[in-house]
Amino acid sequence: xxxxxxxxxxxxxxxxxxxxxxxxxxxxxxxxxxxxxxxxxxxxxxxxxxxxxxxxxxxxxxxxxxxxxxxxxxxxxxxxxxxxxxxxxxxxxxxxxxxxxxxxxxxxxxxxxxxxxxxxxxxxxxxxxxxxxxxxxxxxxxxxxxxxxxxxxxxxxxxxxxxxxxxxxxxxxxxxxxxxxxxxxxxxxxxxxxxxxxxxxxxxxxxxxxxxxxxxxxxxxxxxxxxxxxxxxxxxxxxxxxxxxxxxxxxxxxxxxxxxxxxxxxxxxxxxxxxxxxxxxxxxxxxxxxxxxxxxxxxxxxxxxxxxxxxxxxxxxxxxxxxxxxxxxxxxxxxxxxxxxxxxxxxxxxxxxxxxxxxxxxxxxxxxxxxxxxxxxxxxxxxxxxxxxxxxxxxxxxxxxxxxxxxxxxxxxxxxxxxxxxxxxxxxxxxxxxxxxxxxxxxxxxxxxxxxxxxxx
Length: 457
Ligand code: SAH
Ligand code: SF4
Ligand code: F3S
Hints:
Blueprint: H1 8-19, E1 23-28, H2 32-47, E2 51-52, E3 61-66, H3 71-91, E4 94-99, H4 105-114, E5 120-122, H5 130-138, E6 144-146, E7 167-171, E8 173-174, H6 185-189, E9 193-194, H7 197-209, E10 214-218, E11 226-228, E12 231-232, H8 233-241, E13 248-252, H9 261-269, E14 276-278, H10 286-291, H11 298-311, E15 316-323, H12 330-343, E16 347-352, H13 370-392, E17 399-407, E18 415-418, E19 424-427, E20 437-445, E21 450-454
Parallel strand pairs: 1-2, 1-3, 3-4, 4-5, 5-6, 7-10, 10-13, 14-15, 15-16, 19-21
Antiparallel strand pairs: 8-9, 11-12, 17-18, 17-20, 18-19, 20-21
Helix pairs in contact: 1-5, 8-9, 12-13
The structure holds S-adenosyl-L-homocysteine (SAH), iron/sulfur cluster and FE3-S4 cluster.
């Protein structure tokens, strides 16, 4: 039984009596860590008898799990809340709002003032108390605010209702110590805390038994994972690689400054470890990187990429880039474009710099005008998109191992899956391949996806 919940069984019994068979929905606005938190919240809600629905109009309980990494993520939440107001008035739905944005006092006050119909406000460190919060909101009819400002403890063994049946996320560490000057995450997620290796390994072993074939290890900076003395990310990768049944191991995000040779070696040797490295660049300018507090230069980033290309056969890269950081000149931006030309990323997640209150970059007085930020964003996007077909050509004629996900959304005659490097491949398949890894010969590239053929056909 889980620790830390007083009267847990009794509470579950009492709330179950009232809520059994009711419906809930969760709207997740953030990153994969946020998604993984939502899966735990869903697990706790289902434990007390609710069933999931995708239609918010028929839900008795709606949970919004928020993100505050950029302003547009916050705006979406307020848009949603406007919509929920009507639903609440019509149906008396219980509304709970949690996640990163709720760790900001200003945002909590805004919700209380402008959206007083919200029943529960909870944060990133109090997810494990969700059943208790719900009990108090429903049975005791209270308005709940359950926020901790300190670093939360790690709570093992929470129930979990996963979104997929073959691919699973496993959080290995919480929080972040890096304080990149633009980023709000360390303020809303607290300092780094690593889960114990045995807890992670047990979870992955259980997933393998349940038929999962792919796991993604999650953390804000996975390669600063510290399970115990002399047991870091490389050791964890090696242990997870040994677990039978797990065919694919992915991880996000490592930080370039912490990429040790030991980790590179573990990736190289791990036959199940995907050779796609998500290596957040943020900027190609050494001057901007310094201002961002990233602790590496343009040259060190390129050196790291070259080293991995030399040591890990068929390695590929994806990245995150921010344009329009304060003080970014045309020359700095050219440095970013230069790296994009050199590295041939499989995927780039591009962001326009967004001022986050409380961060160091927000106080910088050389903010870039919106029109220039947008112009640079478009330039970066078009450079990358122009390179995709050429980069895709390397796949044509090759055999790729593809994890089949189901019928293609765009073409109901085709099945779709992903390569180890996360490229979408469409092919003529059969239902029996879904959830399995098949060998496909790549016969054409279509910019946004590759076309494949079963190897034996
Ligand atoms: N810890 C991870 C991911 C952090 S959030 C990492 O360091 O890679 C995901 C991405 O959001 C970041 O990599 C960054 O590119 C982007 N991001 C973070 N803060 C931002 C901001 N204020 N404006 C625009 N993009 C931001
Ligand atoms: Fe934010 Fe930097 Fe931490 Fe990533 S490493 S979460 S960008 S502070
Ligand atoms: Fe993730 Fe957004 Fe929080 S990116 S950690 S959900 S601020």
